[in-house]
Amino acid sequence: MQKIRSGTIAALLLGSIASPLRVAAAPPVAAAIREAALQDSIAWDFTEGLTTEVGPRPAGTPQEARARDWAVAKLKSLGFSNVHADPYSMPVWVRGHDEARIVSPFPQHLALAALGNSASTPAKGIEGEVVYFPTLADLQAAPDGSLKGKIAFVSHAMTATQDGSSYSHFGATRRQGPSVASRKGAAAILIRSIGTDQHRLPHSGVQMWADGVKPIPAAALSTVDADQLTRIVSRGQPVRIHLILTSRMLKDQPSGNVIAELPGADPAAGIVLAACHLDSWDQGTGAIDDASGCGIITAAALHAAKAGSLRRTIRILMAGAEEVGGDGGRAYFATHGSERHVVAMESDFGADRVWRVDFKLPASYAAVSNRISNALAPLGIAPSRTAAGGGSDIEPLVKAGVPVLDLQQDGTRYFDIHHTADDTLDKVDRAQLQQNVAAWAVTLHEFATTTESLANK
Amino acid sequence: MQKIRSGTIAALLLGSIASPLRVAAAPPVAAAIREAALQDSIAWDFTEGLTTEVGPRPAGTPQEARARDWAVAKLKSLGFSNVHADPYSMPVWVRGHDEARIVSPFPQHLALAALGNSASTPAKGIEGEVVYFPTLADLQAAPDGSLKGKIAFVSHAMTATQDGSSYSHFGATRRQGPSVASRKGAAAILIRSIGTDQHRLPHSGVQMWADGVKPIPAAALSTVDADQLTRIVSRGQPVRIHLILTSRMLKDQPSGNVIAELPGADPAAGIVLAACHLDSWDQGTGAIDDASGCGIITAAALHAAKAGSLRRTIRILMAGAEEVGGDGGRAYFATHGSERHVVAMESDFGADRVWRVDFKLPASYAAVSNRISNALAPLGIAPSRTAAGGGSDIEPLVKAGVPVLDLQQDGTRYFDIHHTADDTLDKVDRAQLQQNVAAWAVTLHEFATTTESLANK
């Protein structure tokens, strides 16, 4: 997932939500939807099926194509309409062999994973001396050219937060570190995984080379291995590492967004968009990132439609490429950006419970958002004063002014497994998954059925 | 670690321990030893040093040789006497490349690790159809020859226990499963890791081929991957796996036991033996198995000696080879078995707190064991009615009748990380490590200083 926050607060609207005296009563149908959704099995079956029958599915690869076919068949079997894939093409970075070995002073292997778009070492690898930086700022402060031939190592440790906000700060080491190290002349860069666990499973993730920067081999050590390397460096002897990070870049590979709809009675009333992404990193089976998100929105849409006829169409977008730069979201916008979306929502932060709802809605949505808050409250979800931002799959829509609502999930343990081999089905808590379905179902139902005009102003 | 239990109960002695009215008061010195040992830093420094400066150290390899040199230097610097290595040689199984890929119906990789003494596949690997067995008993019930050319898969799941007793039952799948599968004609065997975690880090471990059985490739899937394969098998389609498990066997490789002593005033009074093992599995740095055990006994011996002059010699045995069949313990017995050991103890079950003390001591030890029970009680340790059994490093001594006492550690989380890449320093809880040192220190002190005669009858 990549969280996007607008950083502004829709103060007028939030004022009306935060005051309990002024809220409108939630319609009784919400209770029935919640009750049914809390017993849901569709989201689990979707998550179990995609992770078991497809497994890892990096964007633009044959595995993602299998995921697309799987999702199209699944959505058709569940009764969705207009189920199809919108194709596009994209460049694909493919991992080869990742290996790191301390040559001296204390020979041993380190567990690591190349970062997306890493340059490849020769098959035999490279060897260099480690230069240690406690934080990204320390790396940035290194004199230009001072790292010539060296392996930069940034060990900045991330701590867990419920709202995932620490990812933005600590993730900069992954996003910017490689370009900074290359500018300083480094032969390669190793970072401490952007993760909050203590297991020897490195966290992958994408990074983009800044303009004009020469790509270098770039990888994340597991948090445990980074701490080990830090201890070894602290002994004061020069530390030499042999590094093998092979990979290759492929041009114009096929990817595609899966679309499915539950049609509304009034096509002119606009589309309610629920998004997730089908692709995953290559090491795990992408259970929490983001099979569960796709399961949640699929199940929720069905529960919303079951509760009564829809005025607006609920559209599911399962983006084919999110992890490696948001190609799916951009492709969706290119094809569908001109259609009328009354709201866009995205589920891409695991499967743990929704604890907060954020809004970025026009003033004309005040009544509907009040009813949503009331319908969510029995699930333990409180409205916030933080503006919604959506995620990468709907980012172009949000930037273009489409209203957005975020059902914020508890991210306390999300970065324990995010982008690792450990992102597997067993990490999904079924009861919390069902709470997500209930939260999404009442929200989608409200947007899709309200007879009020939802003017995007 | 390999736990050995005698299965008998030293009823007479235990009777005298279990009754609080008859116990002798612990000497006041015990309180001072406990207090000092609970502030200990030696055990942590030892564990940190060995895991950082040596890392993984499979028995009979150059890494174990480095560990031996490291330990000899460390023990000398800490003031031990007669510090040296007793050399011996042993066969060594060396892991090559481990890889498993489901070919059909749902292509994906599985995380696994070859078991000790596994046969090697060709470099290109082998391919076969999976035959699923829920338990070892189901595999045993398969008709002879029924697995010809197939890959047997036993998915028996282990559950955690505080005393580690479930390892004996579930570990049989690893110890016996490969030989059983080979007898049935299987081309290879995969087992669910003998572990209690949910991470994609397979649990290695040794297995010995039964007499006359042809070695086949044998490996443990991570618990997560075993559950994934079970789900895939449950879909009812034939499951084919491509398996690469390369390895090699080396004859007569050098290994050695590190010995160190804190001399007692009366050589005729016998030796108090405290054992651990220096070797580890190859994937992790062997922090809980068994660097921490070596740290505990080293620190405890020093605290015991600091509290007053010793009558009996406390001898440290750091076995060079435990994991792969107990070569170190046998070599120790061959060299030192005829010396008078008044007691043998071993620390090889992690670094979590001691919660119970087991005895298998002659009747003449009643007073000393009562004082030990009293000295342990303030640490939250209760005497049990289960007979002590020791571990592999002292097994030949125990079999020969040497009295034994077990300071049983809490094993609830031990099998989460046992024999995996995750056996690293961060898993050691410093406060619990110090409680171990305190328990060991008062126990060693009592055995080494008591003026009573400890007759081995």
Oligomer: homodimer
Kindly give the count of domains of chain A: 2
Order of helices and strands of chain A: HHHHEEEEHEHHEEHEEHEHEEHEHEHH
Distance between the termini of chain A: 29 Å
How much beta of chain A, percentage-wise? 15-25%
Largest interface: A-B, 32 and 32 residues
List low-confidence stretches of chain A: 5-22
Radius of gyration of chain A: 23 Å
Query: Percent range for helical residues of chain A?
Result: 25-40%
**What's the CATH H-level superfamily name of the largest domain in chain A?**
Zn peptidases
List keywords for this structure.
hydrolase (chains A, B), secreted (chains A, B), 3-stranded mixed sheet, Aminopeptidase, 2 domains, endoplasmic reticulum (chains A, B), Carboxypeptidase Q (chains A, B), alpha/beta, homodimer, 11-stranded mixed sheet, Glucose Oxidase, domain 1, 457 residues
Task: Write up this protein.
2 copies of one chain form a homodimer. With 457 residues, chain A is an alpha/beta fold. Chain A has 2 domains: 11-91 and 252-449, Aminopeptidase (3-Layer(aba) Sandwich); 106-238, Glucose Oxidase, domain 1 (3-Layer(bba) Sandwich). Chain A has 14 helices and 14 strands. The first copy, chain A, has helices spanning 11-18, 29-37, 42-53, 62-77, 136-141, 166-170, 172-183, 223-234, 287-306, 327-336, 366-376, 395-399, 414-417, 430-449; strands at 81-104, 108-110, 112-114, 126-133, 151-154, 188-192, 218-221, 240-262, 271-277, 313-319, 341-346, 354-360, 382-387, 404-409. In chain A, strand 9 (271-277), helix 9 and strand 10 form a beta-alpha-beta unit. The first copy, chain A, is elongated, with a radius of gyration of 23 Å. Residues 5-22 of chain A have low confidence and may be disordered. At the A-B interface, helix 3 and helix 8 of A face helix 3 and helix 8 of B. Chains A, B: This is Carboxypeptidase Q. Chains A, B: Residues 257-441 form the Peptidase M28 domain.
